[in-house]
Design a protein that fits this description.
The chain is an alpha/beta fold. It has a single domain, classed as HUPs (Rossmann fold, 3-Layer(aba) Sandwich). The chain is 30% helix and 16% strand. It has a six-stranded parallel beta sheet. Helix 4 runs parallel beside helix 5. It is globular, with a radius of gyration of 16 Å.
Length: 198
């Protein structure tokens, strides 16, 4: 787990990153800027329980690719979930919270994950652990209106103009951040329909 000091604001950006691409880097960059974060932990997961893992590249390879893509020293590439044999985001966030008192965390995710968020293990617990920032992705802009998560926690949504306060807000709290979008997807890259760098 990366080193962090009390009082800092830290974004948590998790995924299989199979492979990582410029669209992921754009989400991280937007989160750092719009949420005014001190750090962003880019958490490379061992796998995704909701995805087919037959085409999952080895964790070490995905880590190397993430590190090659990122040049901002505030972004910390990590795969600590593997060392602790953690499968579910809810368990990851519970451990982070227990080990880092006094640090202000916010969960970062692309809007393309919002539609299926209610299928995540203990998804409501995730929303009650840390604030959530949903970053716009192509074809997913309306997800913040129609998804089950958005409807369930509609009362906890804050305006994106208040995004800099999100990390210090008490969960549940979330916002949808509009901005530049990349059409790249890991699935398309794996299937040869897109190039990783584009």
């Amino acid at each position: 787990m990366p080193f962090v000091e009390k009082g800092m604001t830290v974004g948590l950006f998790g995924g299989s990153f199979n492979p990582p691409h410029a669209g992921h880097a754009l989400v991280a960059e937007i989160a750092l800027r719009r949420l005014k974060l001190d750090q962003l932990w880019w958490i490379v997961t061992p796998g995704n329980p909701l995805k087919d893992t037959r085409h999952l590249a080895p964790l070490a390879e995905r880590l190397v690719r993430c590190e090659a893509l990122i040049h901002d020293p505030r972004i910390k590439i990590t795969a600590f979930e593997a060392a602790h044999q953690i499968r579910y985001t809810a368990d990851t966030l519970a451990m982070i919270k227990a080990r880092n008192p006094g640090v202000h965390f916010v969960w970062i995710m692309g809007a393309d994950n919002l539609a299926d968020f209610h299928r995540w293990q203990r998804w409501q617990k995730i929303a009650l652990t840390f604030p959530i920032a949903v970053i716009d992705r192509p074809g997913s802009t309306l997800a913040f209106l129609s998804s089950r998560m958005a409807k369930t926690f509609d009362y906890a949504r804050i305006d994106e103009t208040d995004a800099p306060m999100l990390a210090r807000s008490k969960a549940p709290a979330w916002t949808f951040i509009h901005g530049p979008r990349s059409s790249l997807s890991s699935t398309d890259i794996r299937n040869g329909a897109a190039k990783p760098k584009g």
